[in-house]
Amino acid sequence: MTKYYYIIEGIDIDGNKNEDGFIISRYKIDKNGNKIFIKTKYLTFDELKLISNKVKFMSGGFVNNNKQLQPLIVLTQDQLNQLLQKNQNQNQQQPPQYVVANNDKSPSFMGKIGDGFAYGLGFNASDAVFDAIF
Amino acid sequence: MTGKYYYFIEDLDITSDKIPDGVLIRQCKINIGRKKIYYTKNNYVSFEKLKDMINNCYETKIITSQKIKKGVKHYTKTIVHNNNRLILMSAKTINEIKNNKLDFKRLPRIIISKKTHFNKHFNNNSNIVNINKLLKNINNLFSNK
Fold first, then answer.
1. For residue B100, which residues of chain A lie inside 8 Å, CB to CB?
2. Which of helix, strand or coil describes residue B16?
3. CA distances from B51 to B14, B57, B88, B121 (A)
4. Regarding predicted confidence, which is higher, B111 or B105?
5. Mean pLDDT in chain B?
6. Which of A33, A61, B60, B70 is a good FRET partner for A90, with 20 to 30 A between their CA atoms?
């Protein structure tokens, strides 16, 4: 079964310089370690929140108490660029499956996911939920 | 990091009706020597806005013919004159670029998927899009953000 990876970024749709929702980019990794981008979907904040509620909010930040749920990892734009530049060959560690790009310009917006990482709450995701989005 | 901006353009459906409503433009800088892409900003452009941006950039195609000798036969080669470089690319090629597999020196500044819903606006029969003008419009869009 193909394993998919996701990058979640904030996006301003109406041009008012405030982010209105998220773009979720789905990719897989081929046998040579290349990232194959498949599709990008847009979700509003409410839609993502609804999905996140369905999945589960878990306390404890990135501690994963449930083996079926994978935590979202928050990366800065620089860290995200480093991740995208890496060739994920077999000798290297696999990238985190769910990544949130925390844009420097709107940290509070991205921080809203799961009531804010600053409060120690982790938003968790599962393959089934993200499969449904795509 | 200084240097020129490059743009990846892809369709985006924001109403969930499976029909693209506009495009997502990803702005990045490319370090040609180190073969690395640095993504900087994303911008959404609605179809209406995109149409306005492209309409400003149309130029009429100038086509001339040139006789070329090949063996004993002569045939005519049609040349389309423009100052543009190919911008419509397959998803496979775009992924190769993103994985640093292609020569960055020959990379166009604007890269759009061939399968874009808005293909006919970029690839009109009688007109061609002046990429330099389009690039200027996109640069302005990001500088106002």
1. 85
2. coil
3. 17, 10, 17, 7
4. B111
5. 81
6. A61
